[in-house]
Design brief:
271 residues; alpha+beta; 4 domains; XPB/Ssl2_N; Helicase XPB/Ssl2 N-terminal domain-containing protein
């Protein structure tokens, strides 16, 4: 609990913040340290203050070893998962309202959550949501990498790129699908009124002007940029409404994707 400063017939020892903390790190507490020191002699008041002060701050930061982390934006969902009896073997513990820690490796935690009706996705250390395909026997599939896109769609990343920036392998647009949507966008005032009603009822995160712009994506096929609640962005056009979901052409994915209206937080012009 003290550091030797000099050696000889009369050694000198000095108590420092680091030396007291070292004693606390191996299991002592302040009372034990002071009790042992009092057996040697009277404790100077500055030394008692030092021990008490270091002990007060000891443990302000904690470090925990976990096998993986489970996150969700809905605290109620995580509380439900933590209390699920069939998932108790995972050793789940709430670290924060939106963070669970598991004592079971990520692959086994994912499998257990899926077996019990949940729909988790793996996240890489970079924060990217990724899905890796397993190689099937007799197929020509390579060890490609998939990335989750809005609406639950998955786009393929170029498997030939190993160290550089990944590029989406975009399929060519379908001209027949584009033509069909262009024709259907000319249905007139009755269709327009239905569009505004559905968007106004479901896209409640958007101001009126942005709801109108989203309506033009549906009724006139215009291009617009959107942002979702999870931060994903997309450039869309030629949209259709299906209940509370916008089915629109996504330029980044090179395909038609589904975007829940309730999860769109911004719409902006794309010129």
């Amino acid at each position: 609990m003290a550091e030797r400063e000099s050696r000889g017939a009369a050694s000198v020892w000095r108590f420092t913040t680091e030396s007291v903390r070292g004693a606390l790190d191996v299991g002592y507490d302040a009372d034990e340290l002071l009790a042992e020191l009092s057996e040697v002699g009277q404790i100077p008041q500055p030394l008692e203050y030092l021990v008490r002060d270091v002990a007060r701050r000891h443990g302000e930061v904690t470090v925990t070893t976990v096998a993986c982390i489970v996150q969700a934006s809905d605290p109620a969902l995580l509380a439900e998962i933590a209390a699920h009896r069939r998932l108790s073997r995972l050793g789940l513990r709430l670290l924060a309202p939106t963070v669970l820690v598991s004592s079971t490796p990520a692959e086994r935690t994912l499998a257990a959550l899926r077996e019990n009706g949940y729909a988790p996705v793996p996240i890489a250390d970079t924060g990217e949501i990724t899905i890796r395909r397993s190689k099937s026997a007799g197929s020509d599939a390579q060890n490609g990498k998939l990335i989750l896109l809005p609406g639950g769609q998955v786009a393929e990343l170029d498997s030939q790129l190993h160290h550089g920036a990944y590029a989406l392998a975009e399929p060519p647009p379908d001209p027949h699908e584009h033509a069909r949507r262009l024709l259907e966008s000319q249905e007139g005032a009755e269709q327009n009124g239905r569009t505004w009603a559905i968007i106004g009822r479901n896209a409640t995160r958007l101001p009126t002007a942005q709801q109108s712009l989203l309506g033009f994506v549906v009724d006139r096929g215009v291009r617009a940029g959107i942002t979702l609640t999870d931060g994903l962005t997309a450039t869309i056009s030629h949209g259709e409404l299906r209940g509370g979901t916008l089915d629109a052409w996504c330029e980044e994915a090179g395909d038609y994707l589904e975007f829940p209206l309730a999860e769109i937080v911004e719409v902006r012009g794309a010129y």
